[in-house]
# Entry
Amino acid sequence: MQPAPVKYLPRRALPRKTLELAHYLIGKTLVRETSRRRIIGRIVETEAYLPYDAACHAFNGPTPRNRSLFLERGHAYVYFIYGNHFMLNVSAGVAGIGSGVLLRALEPLAGLDLMRQGRGHVALRDLARGPGRLAAALRITSELDGADLCAQGPLWLGRSIRSVARIGRSVRIGIRKDAHRRWRFYERGSPFVSGPKYLRG
# Structure
């Protein structure tokens, strides 16, 4: 598959409020540069995490682990969880506050063979459906923590290549603290969205 024509997403285009950013990123692209070629996915699911939110890693203040979450909006915050998965977040708001947007799922667009090297021979819909799968498919590790996603580099955000029909909203997935907050956004009808069916309609 030929890489889709993708243009960089400048930082000035990113909303300054975390919830608005989580909504805005639906339909945008994520590009991973490798020595061979690009891996490209279209963002179809996000979750917002704010400083006063008990489920947010910034809730108890900055630490060596979460310092990238406190960067100006548009930087990568990558962390390791469950002893098995990396997770990719986009820092939100202004520097020093500590909020972010978890990228939960992508629609694969280009570099599918490279994605499968990280994920195995799974169905197309499962290549990057879920945050751990997303990170594995795009070869995202702690080396990318703090990367500027609005500048030329190994990982960056791109503009939309097509419009989003409808955006849904729900509670977040897989958390216990502040689980009532409807801070998850997703493209309705996309087969690449994760979670139970009642949270994908």
Remarks:
- The radius of gyration is 15 Å.
- The chain has a mean pLDDT of 93.
